[in-house]
């Protein structure tokens, strides 16, 4: 594994005013940090702090508000005179979406529709939407890498709530020709900032690498693998893992693309390489040096056996070149973040 220092890119391009919803969350806060360090954009962060953390927002103006407060959101969009919106705010726990689907359709879909309406009303004509690979569902056939134009069939309400939001966004753009969007379909996001300043603080996370890192750091007594009877080489689910800093760079490239007059489009954000749950667990054990306890439980509802990105389009169209495509590095930054916070809490 090669240790890579944070990349400082030359600040370039026009400076714009950006509203980032959910910017105190895991991915949003990393993007705020990246934009604050590498651009001259004027950043406003909006978050209700239900799952985000105020101290993770290192740059920009902060507004605490909930997207369900339609009148307040409309006023913020109107008075902000924004050039672009980057929309992260959403509920994203797949098992919870199965047991409480209305929460996901209201928070993810209805709130997104209202935000889009406010943007169009107040002529905020550049919109970057945080979507998910969950819109694809189960890939059939020999080729398991999903492409942006593949058939979409979510297996859970979380994925469906995002697909519905994508549809609303596309239909709105057809009706309002000046309104342009980029939809970024995330695969499995993990890791922490390379410089260690921020990381994933989500409480009771169900994200595999986060759970592995917490267990390796002694914050959990054990962890569980949900199902070892999938039709994969070792029986556990296969996913495409992407470092959070590379994902954030995809957002900066999408913003640059829209600023330069790019047309509305959809892009996968992944590396095109899948790892099984067991492979991830073994990697975390190796990089942490801790042989933590792992137990097998029954499958979770809504989990497809394998989802891997075909990411050629984002490389070719946006010129996105990931820098941290290394599972050891992703696991190492996640583990070091957990250890850093464990030490801070005990001090």
By CATH, the superfamily of the domain at 17-190 and 241-269 comes out as NAD(P)-binding Rossmann-like Domain
- The number of helical elements comes to 10
The SSE string, one letter per element, is EHEEHEHHEEHEEHEEHEEHEEHH
| CATH class annotation of the domain at 17-190 and 241-269 | Alpha Beta
Radius of gyration: 19 Å
Proportion in helices: 25-40%
The main sheet orders its strands as 3-2-1-4-5-7-11
Instruction: Find the structural class using helix and strand composition.
Output: alpha/beta
Name the beta content range: 15-25%
Biggest beta-sheet profile: 7 strands, parallel
CATH topology of the domain at 17-190 and 241-269: Rossmann fold
Can you give keywords for this protein?
347 residues, alpha/beta, Rossmann fold, 7-stranded parallel sheet, 5-stranded mixed sheet, 10 helices, 39% helix, globular, disordered N terminus
Describe the protein in words.
The chain has a 7-stranded parallel beta sheet, sandwiched between helices. Helix content is 39%, strand content 19%. Residues 1-5 have low confidence and may be disordered. It contains 10 helices and 14 strands.
What does the secondary structure layout of this molecule look like, with pairings?
Blueprint: E1 17-21, H1 26-38, E2 42-47, E3 61-64, H2 70-80, E4 84-87, H3 94-99, H4 101-121, E5 126-132, E6 145-146, H5 157-175, E7 180-186, E8 188-190, H6 208-216, E9 222-226, E10 238-243, H7 244-259, E11 265-269, E12 274-276, H8 277-288, E13 293-297, E14 306-309, H9 312-318, H10 327-346
Parallel strand pairs: 1-2, 1-4, 2-3, 4-5, 5-7, 6-14, 7-11, 8-10, 9-13, 10-14
Antiparallel strand pairs: 10-12
Helix pairs in contact: 1-7, 2-4, 4-5, 6-8, 6-10, 8-10
